[in-house]
Amino acid sequence: GQNIDQPTEMTATEGAIVQINCTYQTSGFNGLFWYQQHAGEAPTFLSYNVLDGLEEKGRFSSFLSRSKGYSYLLLKELQMKDSASYLCAGLDSNYQLIWGAGTKLIIKP
Amino acid sequence: IAGITQAPTSQILAAGRRMTLRCTQDMRHNAMYWYRQDLGLGLRLIHYSNTAGTTGKGEVPDGYSVSRANTDDFPLTLASAVPSQTSVYFCASSEFGNSGGTDTQYFGPGTRLTVL
To answer: Do A101 and B40 touch (CB under 8 A)?
Structure first.
């Protein structure tokens, strides 16, 4: 079956760095997405990885290892506004997104 | 501003009633999707459409129907609502659908539906 696993909740301190891990099993693989979702709002696109390695985009970076079925989202210089849920999703061979349940990130001052 | 709109924002519905959730996009995207989001679960795909005139079933299609008469609109209908359909419903669109591409999905603001 297809499955996306990520931690349910994480806590970090303002100004620090946090890494949110995601492991995936999909039928075929056409890339991995990270989305951010603030409470009560719609998910918004953060990053897309299809090749192994690190993609950096400002304070946010995303890493992919296809051989390990593993990705992480790295958030640097955390700000209070980064408090949100972070959704990992794998794109399978039919170009359907398989979603994880999301990681709720709590930022403390 | 280009994007996706959904209506209504929220709705309380009696069990057994028929309800249509509306979704409109102005980005001329080929593909559209309906998801439900429940606490502790990932987004679950209900139905999708890769292009106007075609639709497909997702992971949890039972009790729901869709139509795609044109590129912009993708309504979701609950023929006879049941309490287990209480959820937040998100409509999304993407440029390519199953034609490939990175296929970033853009989401509407959601409809919060409560079935009593």
So the answer is: yes
